[in-house]
Design brief:
Elements lengths: L1 H8 L9 E2 L17 H13 L20 E6 L4 H12 L4 E6 L2 H14 L6 E5 L5 H11 L6 E6 L11 H23 L8 E8 L10 H17 L2 H7 L1 E8 L12 H13 L7 H14 L5 E4 L6 E2 L1 H11 L3 H4 L1 E2 L11 E5 L4 H12 L4 E6 L2 H15 L4 E5 L5 H15 L4 E4 L9 H26 L8 E8 H4 L6 H18 L8 E8 L5 H5 L5 H12 L6 H14 L5 E4 L6 E2 L1 H18 L1
Parallel strand pairs: 2-3, 2-5, 3-4, 5-6, 6-7, 7-8, 11-12, 11-14, 12-13, 14-15, 15-16, 16-17
Antiparallel strand pairs: 1-10, 8-9, 17-18
Helix pairs in contact: 1-2, 2-6, 3-10, 5-6, 6-7, 13-21, 15-16, 16-18
The structure holds nicotinamide-adenine-dinucleotide.
The site of nicotinamide-adenine-dinucleotide has 29 residues, from helix 13, strand 12, strand 15 and helix 19.
Length: 612
Amino acid sequence: MATSRALLASRNYFSSVIFTNQKCNTTPTPCQSQSINSSRYLLKKTLCDINLIRGLHTRSKDAVKYDWQNAALIVVGACKGIGAHVLKMALNEGVESVTNLDINEKAGFAMQYELNQKYSDKNKVRFLKCDITDEHQHIDTLQNLLVDRRKTYVIVNNAGLIEQRPDMSKEAIDSNVVAIVTSSVTALELMRKDEKGSGGAIINLAPVSILCHLPYFQCYNATKSSILTFNMSLGDEEFFSKTGVRVLSVCYGATDEGLVPIVNAKDKEEIEKLMKTKEGLLTKEKAAAKAVIEIYKTGRTGSTWLSKEIKPAEDITEFIRNIYSDTTEIQCYYRVSIGVIMYDLKDKVAVVTGASNGIGASFVREILEEGIKHVRLLDIDKKTGNALQDELRQKYGKDKVKFVKCDVTDDGQFFKALEDAKKDNGYLDLLVNNAGVAEQDSFARIRKLIEINITALINGTLKAIEMMRTDKGGRGGAIINVCSVGSLIPVSPMFLYSTSKRAAMHFTTCVGRVPCENTDVRVMAACIGVTDTAMLEKLTCYTKDLYEKAQKVLASHPMQSSTAVARCMVEMYQKGGPASIWLIRGGLPAQDVTAQLDKADEEMEAIIRKID
Ligand SMILES: NC(=O)c1ccc[n+]([C@@H]2O[C@H](COP(=O)([O-])OP(=O)(O)OC[C@H]3O[C@@H](n4cnc5c(N)ncnc54)[C@H](O)[C@@H]3O)[C@@H](O)[C@H]2O)c1
């Protein structure tokens, strides 16, 4: 984490929030500059805390209700239009106080006076002149405003610049991107519960045109569209569980007043014609403001809402997520966020156990595609292993692959295979303890299951750490221990398998921490869901009755291919931190669940300490 913070600090302000579309094979450059202004610092800090931007595939639980009473609202750009309506509607909802940040002093003070008169409270509404394109002024204003750590603040970022001329692109970026990022990150840092704040919400507004292609307002649309990605990233549910700050987006159609002042008459006519032909491109200011009021009450963090015409806001989060998963060919492979340390498989030497079939074989194929220098396949299944070796040698070259018949339960065989891989190639960088069985219908099989799934995995891990550790002459490396969803939750009908996989995960967490400090060896666990391999056919249970129940449990989980699993394992190799635990399920991108498990551990620790 410390290294990741340092590396991230060297990153450019903007690049930190942009998703790249390229396969990542570079390690970030070392920290170059520490001369940071405060918004950069805050952004970096926040993104470091998110650690991995993984908002696109998080799922939320049941909706929670929030109410406006006791909230202190800050609207950026509330002198007119949607912002003004939001401000007034929130007052009707009983909000404790509202602050309008705008540059229009005359309108701002007039509104402040009028509304304070109406509510007979001179502190109810406040206008503060603030030019949000002046980054320092913007941050100072927020820092002076969000001072009461016991208060729940709600920030609505409504201001934006629609005018576009060639000389105005910088201004558009400043107000439509930089200001939103600055406001959101500054506010988040001041509100977050894990730093003694009370949580809150950030609602960022964007035009509906970012969801479709329009031949007008290119700069406006481009800059505003960044909000969507930014919000999904910042609105990550796991991050929210720490900060208590929801991040929400509302996309609204063009309002009656929106276009009027900024285009010439001919363009305006054409634009209006176009708008009328497309359902949803027009809305009413009040409807958009109402959407903001309503989504505050129920919106899940990271959600995106559509406000069109006069209809109630519609939650389009899943729709947006699906667009990302459809258009991003292989999400877990390419969707990479800058700011995370990336490990590269090129020129590495790997050993994979249980590599003749299923997940092991698919992983071998994936890492060869990634440009690995050499992979050694260990398995007891000689026939299939040799056939796979021959096939892969034809495709990638003789030196790239070697099959070795090896029973991992025999330490002598296993350790020799590891030593040989290192001797033949100069070093060892990666061990994947993948060999595993699920037959558990006799004592002999149960003993074998424990030997393969637990003992061999532990012995292989300890041996490989010794061979790779930098403090003993190695060059560091990684170990991926193949676990299961059954490591995370008890799968009772397969109780011995589930127990063995839990043990493997627990061992990974423990050994990956303190014993691996200063070794530069990352030990990680892949908790894999139901996968279409021969293991499912070979499965046996302790009793016939349990077997039937196990089949029902397996059928209730989504099936994924071994290829999808293997890609996720590549992603976890690239991004995973020491002792990280990853969930690979349902063909979805790999999800780092370390923080959730840490939290569960902390809760358990608290219970244990209470007993003391
Ligand atoms: N298939 C699933 O649904 C699923 C789900 C979660 C986790 N997993 C885990 O994934 C790993 C791979 O399983 P799979 O689904 O690809 O199964 P698989 O049966 O297709 O492959 C397992 C491989 O391990 C080899 N093997 C078994 N005993 C061995 C030993 N003593 N020494 C060396 N090799 C041995 C087998 O010959 C086989 O090639 C296992 O650890 C399994 O527990 C599988």
